[in-house]
Amino acid sequence: MKEKQILGIILAVVLVFFAGVMTKNKHENVTYKVGDVISIGKINYKVNNFEIRNSNDMTGRNDLIVSIDVTSMSEESEKASFEDSFVLQIGEKTFEADSTRSGNANAGSNPFRYNQLNPDQTLQGFVVFNISKDQAESKKFDLLIKEGSFSSEEATVKLN
């Protein structure tokens, strides 16, 4: 009897997990541009600006950084939680945000790392990525915004 209960619980957990993974992404085949407001989960995101520049915050490095100005807004009636879920895509290559440089760009803290927004609250900050000079010459920069680690909902913002 206990074995059936345990098996039932395991089966329920697996089904819930796969239901979340198999959910169709409503942003699939839609590409947004800088300035568009994108609703992902309980948070609205807006990419305000994007720039490529020399990295002058760490000595001894000759790479470049991509700095992306993002605003997150909650229009919920209760607090909404979110996590750092930005991925830069240059052609077929993907880049994770540099947490140290993102923190430096935001006066010492990363506002998009595991944060909460209260109703009608807005949060603005910078997400920073390291890239090489060769990668900076690409004509295809996209930002993938994901709802979170365990969600399939994501949107693509064409940066250039």
Question: Could you name the key traits of this structure?
Answer:
160 residues; alpha+beta; globular
Give me the count of strands: 11
Determine the fraction of residues in helical runs and give it as a percent range. 10-25%
The CATH architecture: Sandwich
Give the uncertain stretches in residue-range form: none
Number of helices: 3
Find the CATH topology.
Immunoglobulin-like
The major β-sheet equals: 5 strands, mixed
- Chain-averaged pLDDT: 80
Could you give the topology of this structure?
Layout: H1 2-22, E1 31-33, E2 37-40, E3 43-54, E4 64-74, E5 80-82, E6 86-90, E7 93-96, H2 99-105, E8 115-117, E9 122-131, H3 133-136, E10 141-146, E11 154-158
Describe this structure in words.
- By secondary structure, the chain is α+β, with helices and mostly antiparallel strands.
- The chain has one domain: Immunoglobulin-like (Sandwich).
- About 20% of the residues lie in helices and about 40% in strands.
- The protein has helices at about 1-20, 100-105, 135, and strands at about 30-35, 35-40, 45-55, 65-75, 80, 85-90, 95, 115, 120-130, 140-145, 155-160.
- A five-stranded mixed beta sheet has the order 1-11-10-6-7, with no helix packed on it.
- A hairpin with a 7-residue loop joins strand 10 and strand 11.
- The N and C termini lie far apart (about 60 Å).
- The mean pLDDT is about 80.
